[in-house]
């Protein structure tokens, strides 16, 4: 017996994704397969799990067997994954229906979700720009954040309620803040990275986008837990997280740290007020106290992130030589081209300047004469960053930290094209949690006067993921964020 409800959920998602193609949220779709899968669902199965029959999207850096997995790069434009990533398989096993792969920055490098398939549009631009035809809208669209912008935009617009992204230096939290949804990066080692194409192995974390905390909890419960395929994963069994209603019963007073080094003077006045007003409002409830704390290494974290990530990127990207798989140049002079010539041409043709720049930088930092000066020194900074967090959680006894994610409203794609280095300063707010492997959650707070969501983030102690979601749940139940729903827009 077919379930109409399930059937309509998948159909609605597909219709919305097709209708708002201008947002460019997908790199490729699985619409036919999704409809076919939905046909096979039974009501009985659906009743067994709240995820059963749920249409979802996954970032195009997760392997899904036989489906294109491109990382929004020409290098992998024709690559079909031979296997499925662990956490994607677990979602499928829980009854989720994958409707497509989402657009992103090439190989997850960047903050604008602008790879070889063009940029993702911020869904709030569409809300503001009703009655504008598609051509004009394209010029007026704002950046959706990155690198997991396709997933964030699709969830924020309510095309789907759950999507996967990945966070190496903020790529889940940044687009979640820009698009107006939840974006969760769990503790390093909680979710398997098997089948998620590596950017920086020691920072990478799968991440989840949702429109409420319950869906975050449901998703984590479906995908967390040991996996023999990922040696960096925690080996102890995963204890399922409680539901948000259960978590709300915890009435313990919360102490939240405000790090001095996340200089809020760098924020636009509106973004600064958003943070300050939230502190005042939460203090007034009597359930929260705030404390200034210091993270002295934070000012070096962006530099350490840049160096260490480039080094791992150089190593990870060495597999893309156009021979084993990936793009292969046709422009070969058989009489004189060496392996290096072919490699250079292959990469010139298929990788953007940003990606090649990071490979080059990484190899430079790893040269014998530079290794100590850059790589080893950055590892020291990484240790310092981690120790700073341990100190504030253990000695200052704060339950979590509250911090900005980005400092101002997004700019348009046209403006971004003029300067694609813009916004990287904001990485200082996000990279620390990756250097230290901590859980962090970006959550929407209010809408700016220009009509864009303003998000903030909470950063918690290692493996206190459930406690962090519990605090977020308490914070977010003190106000009502006006979530966007483009499926209801005329
Ligand atoms: N802005 C960071 C970078 O470009 C984000 C990377 C990420 O989290 N995938 O490296």
From TrEMBL:
GO MF annotation list: ATP binding; glutaminyl-tRNA synthase (glutamine-hydrolyzing) activity
Assembly and interaction partners: Subunit of the heterotrimeric GatCAB amidotransferase (AdT) complex, composed of A, B and C subunits.
InterPro entries, A to Z: Amidase, Amidase_CS, Amidase_dom, AS_sf, GatA
E.C. code: 6.3.5.7
Name the record gives this protein: Glutamyl-tRNA(Gln) amidotransferase subunit A, mitochondrial
Catalysis: reaction(s): L-glutamyl-tRNA(Gln) + L-glutamine + ATP + H2O = L-glutaminyl-tRNA(Gln) + L-glutamate + ADP + phosphate + H(+)
Keyword Protein biosynthesis set for record: yes
Keywords: ATP-binding, Ligase, Mitochondrion, Nucleotide-binding, Protein biosynthesis
Main function: Allows the formation of correctly charged Gln-tRNA(Gln) through the transamidation of misacylated Glu-tRNA(Gln) in the mitochondria. The reaction takes place in the presence of glutamine and ATP through an activated gamma-phospho-Glu-tRNA(Gln).
Family assignment from sequence similarity: Belongs to the amidase family. GatA subfamily.
Organism from which the protein derives: Rotaria socialis
Domain Amidase: 12-469
Catalytic residues of the enzyme: 59, 147, 171
EC class (word): ligase
UniProt-annotated location(s): Mitochondrion
